[in-house]
């Protein structure tokens, strides 16, 4: 099941959706930039050896929480072992990998020699044998797990480095500053998907790890679902073809790039992650890519101009930074324009794509605000925010989020956002809504 064919490296394309027309004196330009990679590995299920000099192209570290709380209930640790075994089975031959046991310290479980194993029928079997030794006991210091994963992953000469992290509890045995420092040290060195199992972990910690390391975050409320989730994560990782892709945005003199946000498949603000890339250009990290499409919202402030004038507000391209400081240009480009007109119909129209994703970003924000207000007992404020969330989810067709909201509020009228807070909400339902609040739906065609 692990011998996948090696597909070709994907081709990238960039499409820009905007209303380029501004009224006289108008200065704000909004555009949705859709980046699509096609012809790569997600559909084929494998990895190419691109850009790695013939070496295996990927390395994966699986970090498993083995703190004392993993014994409650006892099935949790068994499910974690089974899930890790399933993930190991999904590794493609030739992929470098390691398994780490995480407590208040980080311990190599396999291969255990300070390096990485190379996936084959033999090493997969040995790794699964080693998993039998996983036992719970001790505390939780996730920063130490990430730093060990970084050391192991960096020992391999590969193009793609990825981590999978499972925790069931709060990061109680190191300070928030220590975890932040570990995330800062690992950012840009490997991507990481993070999962919380059960309901005793902190949503903001798990989502913060995934956000910092450009991965996904989710809840597995029932430990019995871990194996399927781990298999899915590993299959996605095995489909990645190009690492460290950056969105390069150039703007002309006199313009200000106000923000760059990923808006699909989830909301992620990239504005503060800019790396300068020459005069008036900056790179925004997007992580690793396989066969997939993502949407980004750019907001540019331009200098005012006279009626009939037009200008290039921004140029978007895709690059892969190289170790020697150069960049590989992926050959895809999109242009964001500004045109000043006295046609009120043209200048006041809102691009459907921009309107849709502005609503999706607000949806993510009001869910988090509503849940925070609910936790501190401001039920009127929570009702207002979560009602607005129901209204936005309904209007945009975000059925998954609407379903999650319905477990926290009773919906009286979705169109107007009229809701009542449920008096009894399970912790799992509340945490699921919070964890998945940033997931978006694509704009209706």
Give a verbal description of the structure.
There is one protein chain. With about 450 residues, this protein is α+β, with helices and mostly antiparallel strands. It contains eleven helices and 20 strands. The strands form four sheets. Strands 4, 5, 6, 7, 8, 9 and 10 form a seven-stranded mixed beta sheet that branches. It has a six-stranded mixed beta sheet with strand order 2-18-17-11-15-14. The model is unreliable at about 1-5 and about 40-55 (pLDDT under 50). Helix content is about 30%, strand content about 30%. The chain is globular, with a radius of gyration of 23 Å.
Descriptive key words:
six-stranded mixed beta sheet; single chain; 31% strand
Structural class by secondary-structure content: alpha+beta
Mean pLDDT: 93
Beta percentage is 25-35%
Number of strands: 20
What value does the Rg take, in angstroms? 23 Å
- Biggest sheet architecture: 7 strands, mixed
